[in-house]
Design brief:
By secondary structure, the protein is mainly alpha-helical. The protein has one domain (11-262). The protein is 83% helix and 0% strand. It is built from twelve helices and no strands. The termini are far apart. This is TVP38/TMEM64 family membrane protein. Belongs to the TVP38/TMEM64 family. The chain crosses the membrane at residues 22-44, 64-88, 95-120, 148-168, 180-202, 233-255.
Amino acid sequence: MTSDETDGADAPRARWRRVLRWLPIAAMIATSLAILASGITRLLDLDTLLASRAWLSDAVARNPTGAMAAAILAYVGAVVVSVPATLFLTVLCGFLFGIVPGALIAVASASMGAAIVFSIGRGPASELLRRRAGPRLAGLAEGFRRDAFGYITFLRLLPIFPFWLTNLAPAAFGVSLRTFFLATILGLTPGALVYATTGAAIEEVVATHEAALAACALGDGTRCGQALTLRSLITPTMLAGLAALAAFALLSVLLRRRLAREHA
């Protein structure tokens, strides 16, 4: 067989390999768009949780292991396809399983989902991100180069970038999976405890919710379904606590750099 014939036979295989490399990220994006287009995410709100809480509690009581497995699968799946439901799911885990177990389930699930996206991001998506990196991504890259663990922890404590971006960008800029995974667990834990606490106290929220709906009905009656939302449960105190934790993480990064310079 001549070299031309060999090159001709290898060309289809090379194209097929390129297709396979893009397949995981393409499937992830397609699934995400399909879920968003279906409108299912509109059901992930506090009113739905309040209306279903008796059925959900009964399901957990009848089969706690199965309920936990279902919660983990749903959470991991939501993270992998980048559906904006992690806040709701963390609150739900707190409601179903209690503060500490709920927070642990949320952190473990979010971290596993993030690790899957990170692994997918090591393929052609990382090449695309590096080519299209603008000033914001350049800043991320610099942070990962200087102190990947501390920077990822900071980004998880105070999510100033979309979750999917902070899953893909570290892979594109050479962070190891071990560093990414451990920093993600550490950075997600404080916020998960805060939101799981909100979920565990959901029965106390019911009274507030019903009072808000009643007051709304006595008024003009419009937009009563929005009397209480997940956003309204995120108090200034909660945000201040997360900001303080993020500031502490950033301070630890700065101190670590200074100590490294002094001992260099």
